[in-house]
């Protein structure tokens, strides 16, 4: 009987899976895409927004403790490690600012921080699902998330203006001159 229920559950999960990629994990209508490549926070955010081959997405939105545990449990197999951490989409511009999700929502109602949170970028620990704050320059794996019924959209990337050295070439043009010649007393031109 248990075996039949398990087969039914697996069958229903595959039928009702709403994710655009069968390798993604779905929880409460949100699809999670794990990226086994280490990047800085800003590079990870850019990857989710613009380079995710499935669809534009955000760095992972983790609205509940259950979602944090879910992400950590799948991260173990996705990244092939049992410790370490991966970027989620929570950050703030300065220590005095509010925590904001990559979706634009403010962190509200619950917190999953492991200990001190004096840095501005958040990663989730694979071993226990708790959040830690890190510097943007650190490189970690990442998880993206999106709602398959309404994936996010992002403005096009505007190429940055690179400083270009300009070489000026100065040329001078001879001004027309008028030469006046006169004849001297001997009749010679001078």
TrEMBL record:
The keyword Signal applies. The keyword Signal applies. Pfam families: Lectin_C. Residues 27-145 form the C-type lectin domain. InterPro entries: C-type_lectin-like, C-type_lectin-like/link_sf, CTDL_fold. Keywords: Signal. Residues 1-17 form the signal peptide. GO terms for biological process: innate immune response. This is C-type lectin domain-containing protein. It comes from Caenorhabditis tropicalis.
């Amino acid at each position: 009987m248990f075996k039949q229920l398990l087969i039914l559950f697996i069958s229903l999960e595959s039928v009702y899976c709403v994710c655009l990629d069968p390798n993604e994990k779905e929880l409460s209508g949100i699809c999670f895409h794990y990226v086994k490549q280490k990047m800085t926070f800003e590079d990870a955010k850019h990857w989710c927004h613009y380079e995710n081959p499935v669809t534009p997405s955000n760095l992972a939105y983790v609205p509940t403790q259950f979602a944090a545990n879910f992400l950590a449990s799948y991260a173990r197999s996705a990244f092939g490690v049992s410790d370490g951490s991966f970027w989620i989409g929570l950050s703030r511009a300065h220590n005095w600012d509010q925590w904001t999700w990559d979706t634009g929502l403010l962190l509200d109602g619950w917190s999953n921080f492991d200990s001190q949170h004096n840095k501005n970028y958040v990663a989730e620990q694979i071993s226990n699902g708790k959040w830690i704050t890190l510097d943007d320059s650190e490189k970690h794996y990442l998880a993206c998330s999106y709602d398959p019924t309404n994936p996010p959209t992002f403005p096009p990337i505007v190429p940055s203006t690179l400083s270009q050295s300009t070489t000026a070439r100065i040329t001078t043009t001879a001004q027309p001159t008028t030469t006046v010649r006169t004849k001297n007393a001997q009749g010679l031109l001078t």
